[in-house]
Amino acid sequence: MISFEIPEAIQQQRQLFEQLAREVMRPYARYYDEHEHEIPWEYVRRIWPLIKMEWAQRVTQAERELAGKGREQKRQGPQVPFNLQLVFMVEMLSWGDAGIYLCTPGPALAGFAIHAAGTPEQRVRFLKRFAEGDPKWGAMAITEPGAGSDVSAINTTAVREGDEWVINGEKIFITNGWLALEASEGLVVVWATVDKRAGRAGIKSFVVPAGTPGVKVAKREHKLGIRASDTAALVFENCRVPLDNILGTPEVQRSDTKAGFKAAMVTFDTSRPVVAASALGIARAAIEFVKEKLAEQNIEIPYGVPKHRLTAVQRDILHMEAMHKMAWLLTLRAAAMSDARQPNALEASMAKVKAGRAVTWITQKAVEILGPLGYSTEYLAEKWMRDAKINDIFEGTGQINTLIVARRILGYSSRELK
User: Fold this and answer.
1) 3-state DSSP call for residue 222?
2) What fold, for 259-410?
């Protein structure tokens, strides 16, 4: 039998993050929207001990794996549903404010990449910095001016010179890029090609710690939504990192044209449900607010009533809730599969597509129902609509993820279905 009960540990965690969302996120959402790139330090200070504790446990687990212990536990699957906990946390924090949530310290996408492509020794070495000391951020640099949705078109290069890799290229739209390299002693995982002729097989990932010569923040983007979030462009000019900063093996397997590409895709399989959860936190905030305002006008939402007996607004609310629930269940499934170490590329993309479409439609409908006040800055509804759209764009656009779903279901390759 399938249980829809939230595990006790996650319920307790969720209550803790709800308090944080109510006290230090929602009340300051408008302020940080209007003061772009200002770090929400009160939020950072409150959440950092929790993040640090979580990553300390993850590092301990990696150390046990490195020492040859815990292998039986790995075969049985993780005892703590990390990804399920994560989506519940992200959903609640995004309900508080999506832009502030994206300022959460920790390895973020860099952590996903290190877990996907790194060895146990690398997981311990690079993630240990997030288990101690002051707040630090991680980032993943993969998108380029000429390589957005088509990750295989990456032009940034990494050339071996003695005991070092020399990285050259430009990366754009990097969440937490400035925070990772200039505001803290964090790190960036950079995707580059070590052999352009090998195509996707030549793509590898490299860890570039803050303070590494040859990397600089070229720009910080001004955005439509999630304005508290730091989105940067980075330039690598003869950036040198140690030989063992390449995640995984440096060998290029030409016989497997997707070998280097797989680690990037596994990273997205883990991160896409998290993006979906963030979208659905925004969507829930919009639904709850609209229902609250309708209740003030004595407009209730009846359930179990035929559609033809409902008003247009009542039907809209029910449709908003149905879209939200549908996407949320897909998100939970994708996260649970990841925790169970089951391949979830199809489910992760399905969750990402559905959540991106749902939050975009739900927040637009919320503004529409609220009328002129919904369009004004008196309410947060217009901000939620602006924050929502990015969830249909980053971590693979809605169109790209729809293609992935179609290919997986129909059995087509990327060459056969474009």
Assistant:
1) coil
2) Butyryl-CoA Dehydrogenase, subunit A; domain 3 (1.20.140)
pLDDT of residue 115: 85
The tokens for 134 are 């002051």
Which H or E run contains 237? strand 231-242
CA quadruple 28, 32, 35, 39: dihedral, nearest 10: 110
State the helix-helix crossing angle for 345-370 and 398-410, rounded to 10 degrees.
Answer: 140
Q: Do domains 8-245 and 259-410 have the same CATH topology?
A: no
Specify the amino acid at residue 278.
Answer: S
Which two three-digit tokens encode residue 208?
């570039």
DSSP E strand stretches across 244-390:
none
CB contact set of 142 (below 8 Å; sequence gap of 6+): 151, 154, 171, 191, 264
d(CA 67, CA 315): 58
Report the predicted TM-score, pTM, of the whole model to 2 decimal places.
0.93
**Cβ(205)–Cβ(246) below 8 Å:** yes
Q: Which of these CATH numbers, 2.40.160.60, 2.40.110.10, 3.30.420.280, 3.90.550.10, describes 8-245?
A: 2.40.110.10
Angle at 148 between CA 146 and CA 149, to 5 degrees: 135
Q: H/E element holding 395?
A: none
How far apart (Å, rounded) are the C-alpha atoms in residues 241 and 205? Answer: 12
What angle, rounded to 10 degrees, do the helices at 120-127 and 41-66 form?
Answer: 150
Closest CA to 209 of 125, 115, 101: 125
Closest CA relative to residue 260, chosen from 356, 142, 163: 142
Q: What is the pLDDT of residues 274-300, one digit of tens each?
A: 999 999 999 999 999 999 999 999 999
pLDDT for position 190: 96
Q: What is the mean pLDDT of residues 363-372?
A: 98
Catalytic residue ranges: 395
- Give the pLDDT confidence of 109-126 residue by residue, as tens digits: 999 899 888 888 999 999
Residue position matching structure tokens 């993969």: 142
Are 385 and 364 in contact by the 8 Å Cβ rule? The answer is yes
> pLDDT of 230-249, one tens digit each?
999 999 999 999 999 999 88
Domain ranges of the chain: 8-245, 259-410
Say if residue 76's pLDDT is above 50. Answer: no
**Higher model confidence: residue 255 or residue 417?**
417
